[in-house]
Amino acid sequence: MTVKAARTQGSTYGSVEQIFFRMLSPGVQIQGLPYTFSPSIDELIANFAASPVGVYQTTLTIGQNECQDSVVLTLTVVP
Fold first, then answer.
1. 3-state secondary structure of 13
2. Contact 3, 79 (CB under 8 A)
3. What are φ and ψ of residue 77, in 5° steps?
4. Is 51 exposed, middle or buried (0-12, 13-18, 19+ CB in 10 A)?
5. What are phi and psi of 32, to 5 degrees?
6. What is the rounded CA–CA span in Å between residue 43 and residue 10?
7. Domain boundaries, the chain
8. Most buried among 43, 54, 72, 73, by the most CB within 10 A?
9. Exposed / middle / buried, residue 16 (Cβ in 10 Å: 0-12, 13-18, 19+)
10. For residue range 23-69, what is the model confidence (pLDDT) as tens digits?
11. Residues 6+ apart with CB under 8 A from 47
């Protein structure tokens, strides 16, 4: 994704979250389930503000207790 596209598509917490959700395979359901990003979306936004070009990686964990799964999601931002 270009810096311009990232600034346009990822201007809010919710829109950044959606960028990462769109990376999931079709059919993956998250609605109604607890989930976390590590590092958090706020941390990714702060990193982007400091230096937009780069690789942004987060681990999305969906579910709770023994019934959970995680995936590493990576977004590369180019000039």
1. helix
2. yes
3. -110, 125
4. exposed
5. 85, -5
6. 13
7. 3-77
8. 73
9. buried
10. 999 989 899 999 999 999 999 999 999 999 999 999 999 998 899 99
11. 39, 54, 56
